[in-house]
Specification:
With 360 residues, this protein is an alpha+beta fold. It has one domain. Helix content is 19%, strand content 27%. The protein is built from nine helices and 19 strands. The strands form three sheets. Strands 11, 12, 13, 14, 15, 16, 17, 18 and 19 form a nine-stranded mixed sheet that branches. A hairpin with a 6-residue loop joins strand 16 and strand 17. It binds 2-acetamido-2-deoxy-beta-D-glucopyranose (NAG) (4 copies). One 2-acetamido-2-deoxy-beta-D-glucopyranose binds next to loops. One of its GO terms (molecular function) is deoxyribonuclease II activity. It catalyses: Endonucleolytic cleavage to nucleoside 3'-phosphates and 3'-phosphooligonucleotide end-products. It is found in: Lysosome. Its EC number is 3.1.22.1.
């Protein structure tokens, strides 16, 4: 009986690690939009712990199941393997230009302006791209939590499940974004298979032109994503200096406006890059807020089909920093994000070349 049971257990095909949705189910991808602390009713709203949830089959934005600091929600549940007692069979990298207090990483001003998590087993795992400062907690802290510093403002998190082999390409992208890695585990087969991730952990970065790199990544369920990554020497704005032309579309860009040297909307090239300044979720009572309350970083093409979620703002300083964004042409993603743009800064009185696409 016991040997049989054991045999049965051993025969279960290995299941790759994945993102988990808000109901605890494995999902190919999800987006969590943490809402700013709103003046609306309810203690959770005031503390800034509420969020909206989106995946392929959620039928648009849904209210988060609980609060963002719950280990049962999509973000907490997905990161759970990190906080188990034994992570020896996993590989992970936690990187953030604003690292949690407990970690002992170096000064990050030369590193990329980039935040994320790679977490995988031998069959695959996920890449979580996000805007959250001081997050996530170190694996040694043994529990998921949400930092106080990330409660007041809006934040975005995009989680995508990828097969094992895709992490080589993700590793390449990280040699461009030059992240500050503040916690990691990369041993044995993981170190062998992903030399670029080892290089990134050691603080190495791309050392010759080109200073930007774009790769196609295919998720576990076959969804196609396009990753854009730039190194500091790229020396230009991600959106107006590359992304709009690369995607061949105008862009409406949501980013954090409370920084110095914010770049204005830019219509001087073929494609317009427009700064979003107000966001509104659909429906009566759907929360609405200003970009000054929203630390999240995403963009959409006004007429589709592109949506990107990443970690770069539009300001002069970040022209000289690494960072990037993860884009896709998924209808479920675009249909959810495009209507969020309530207002944007037009290019008043700026000269612009004839454009193929004026009407937005
Ligand atoms: C973790 O698991 C591995 C393999 O299952 C085992 O060899 C190792 O001793 C475990 N480590 C701890 C600290 O329990
Ligand atoms: C528009 O963007 C391009 C590329 O980033 C930049 O070279 C140009 O100076 C910008 N124009 C304005 C008016 O900001
Ligand atoms: C880098 O960005 C430039 C635009 O600034 C673009 O023309 C070029 O194709 C990009 N290079 C790569 C390798 O994607
Ligand atoms: C958002 O910004 C607009 C224009 O700058 C301002 O009139 C409005 O009061 C702001 N709303 C909030 C909720 O801060």
């Amino acid at each position: 009986m016991i040997p049989l049971l054991l045999a049965a257990l051993l025969c279960v095909p290995a299941r790759a690690l994945t993102c988990h949705g808000d109901s605890g189910q494995p999902v190919d991808w999800f987006v969590v939009y943490k809402l700013p602390a709103l003046r609306g009713s309810g203690e959770a709203a005031q503390r800034g712990l509420q969020y909206k949830y989106l995946d392929e089959s959620s039928g648009g934005w849904q209210d988060g199941r609980g609060l963002i600091d719950s280990p049962e929600g999509a973000v907490g549940r997905s990161l759970q393997p990190l906080y188990r007692s034994n992570t020896s069979q996993l590989a992970f990298l936690l990187y953030n230009d604003q690292r949690p207090q407990a970690s002992k990483a170096q000064d990050s001003s030369k590193r990329g302006h980039t935040k994320g998590v790679l977490l995988l087993d031998r069959d695959g795992g996920f890449w979580l791209v996000h805007s959250v400062p001081d997050f996530p907690p170190l694996a040694s802290s043994a529990a998921y939590s949400w930092p106080h510093s990330a409660c007041t403002y809006g934040q975005t998190l995009l989680c995508v499940s990828f097969p094992f082999a895709q992490f080589a390409k993700i590793g390449k992208q990280l040699t461009y974004t030059y992240p500050q890695v503040y916690d990691y585990h990369l041993k044995g087969i993981f170190a062998q298979e992903f030399p670029d991730l080892e290089n990134v952990i050691k603080g190495h970065h791309v050392s010759q032109e080109p200073w930007n790199s774009s790769v196609t990544l295919t998720s576990q369920a076959g969804a196609v994503f396009q990753s854009f990554a730039k190194f500091s020497k790229f020396g230009d704005d991600l959106y107006s200096g590359w992304l709009a032309a690369a995607l061949g579309t105008n862009l409406q860009v949501q980013f954090w406006h409370k920084t110095v040297g914010v770049l204005p909307s830019n219509c001087s090239d073929t494609w317009q890059v427009l700064n979003v300044n107000q966001i509104a979720f659909p429906g009566p009572g759907g929360p609405s807020f200003n970009s000054t309350e929203d630390h999240s970083k995403w963009c959409v093409s006004p007429k589709g089909p592109w949506t990107c979620v990443g970690d770069m703002n539009r300001n002069q300083g970040e022209e000289q920093r690494g960072g990037g964004t993860l884009c896709a042409q998924l209808p479920a993603l675009w249909k959810a994000f495009q209507p969020l743009v309530k207002n944007y800064q037009p290019c008043n009185g700026m000269a612009r070349k004839p454009s193929r696409d004026y009407k937005i």
